[in-house]
């Protein structure tokens, strides 16, 4: 029986679809939403990581709050509640760092532009390949 579900959300419509799926498919489970606030990357440079680290926990939480607010709205529509987890860094690593605490990971994957497939598709692929628990990918 699935009692704990981790849903990765990035603010996209597809991640919202993943949350709706998880809430519908696992009605009796405790659902937690994770949002990974990006750290330094080749595209954003080290400045993003520095700015986030200087902002501290409050700044990181503030950056994630719009995603969490939307997650709570969706949960309320489904007569449910969600817990929230925020991480800083690479999305796949942040999700995988928590996956072991759950029975299943649910995430959306993009199938749009090449940029979407390279950035977001790689996250889904990495989580799918390395997760210690089953992964459901929602399109």
TrEMBL record:
- Pfam families recorded for this chain? Usp
Q: Which family does it belong to?
A: Belongs to the universal stress protein A family.
What name has this protein been given in UniProt? UspA domain protein
UniProt xrefs under SUPFAM superfamilies? Adenine nucleotide alpha hydrolases-like
| PANTHER family found in the cross-reference section | STRESS RESPONSE PROTEIN NHAX (PTHR46268), UNIVERSAL STRESS PROTEIN (PTHR46268:SF24)
Which residues does UniProt assign to the signal peptide?
Answer: none
UspA domain sequence ranges: 1-139
């Amino acid at each position: 029986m699935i009692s704990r579900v981790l849903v990765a959300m990035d603010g996209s419509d597809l991640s919202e679809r993943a949350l709706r799926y998880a809430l519908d498919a696992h009605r009796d489970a405790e659902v937690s939403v994770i949002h990974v606030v990006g750290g330094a990357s080749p595209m954003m440079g080290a400045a993003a990581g520095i700015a986030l680290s200087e902002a501290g926990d409050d700044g990181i939480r503030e950056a994630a709050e719009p995603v969490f607010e939307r997650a709570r709205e969706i949960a309320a529509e489904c007569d449910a509640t969600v817990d929230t987890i925020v991480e800083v860094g690479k999305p796949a690593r942040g999700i995988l760092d928590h996956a072991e605490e759950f029975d299943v990971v649910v995430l959306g994957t993009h199938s749009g532009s090449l940029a979407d497939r390279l950035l977001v598709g790689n996250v889904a692929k990495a989580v799918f390949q390395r997760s210690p628990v089953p992964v459901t990918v929602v399109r």
